[in-house]
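> example.struct
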């Protein structure tokens, strides 16, 4: 039995946002995600933004669970007219295959193709998750990363 066999995704509910907020306060996670909010410690702004996302029918927010424990979040949304995915895993659960397994499950539900994913150039773990789920790197972009207070390269991935 694999260590991530108990991974489940389910639609996110408002109460899950408390856990998600705590996850994004981790400095290492915030640095690697790079393209984050201007102030990750602003809890009211965070909760307001994601509560609106929960009400948006174009966004499919999913909570990642291992057993009864919330270990991360994942979503399909629309960016520049295209389907895109995003995910965030609690730092203590990195490297266990949870994000890869959860993304496979989301992609089975969200069948729109192509679907895109973007990662900071140096976010090796996130890049591997996309590649293990069949995404291919198709290009790069540059953007201002709030978590680094600098413009950095972002890798663009596509699943056809």
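> example.seq
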């Amino acid at each position: 039995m694999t260590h991530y066999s108990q991974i489940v995704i389910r639609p996110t509910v408002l109460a899950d946002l408390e856990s998600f907020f705590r996850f994004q306060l981790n400095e290492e996670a915030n640095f690697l995600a790079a393209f984050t909010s201007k102030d990750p410690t602003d809890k009211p702004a965070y909760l307001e933004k994601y509560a609106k996302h929960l009400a948006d029918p174009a966004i499919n927010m999913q909570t990642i669970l291992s057993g009864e424990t919330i270990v991360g979040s994942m979503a399909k949304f629309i960016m520049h007219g295209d389907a895109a995915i995003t995910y965030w895993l609690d730092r203590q659960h990195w490297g266990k295959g949870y994000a890869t397994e959860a993304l496979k499950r989301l992609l089975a539900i969200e069948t729109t193709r192509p679907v895109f994913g973007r990662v900071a150039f140096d976010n090796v773990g996130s890049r591997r998750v996309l590649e293990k789920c069949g995404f291919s790197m198709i290009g790069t972009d540059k953007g201002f990363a709030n978590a680094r207070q600098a413009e950095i390269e972002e890798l663009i991935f596509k699943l056809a």
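> remarks
The first helix runs from residue 17 to 23.
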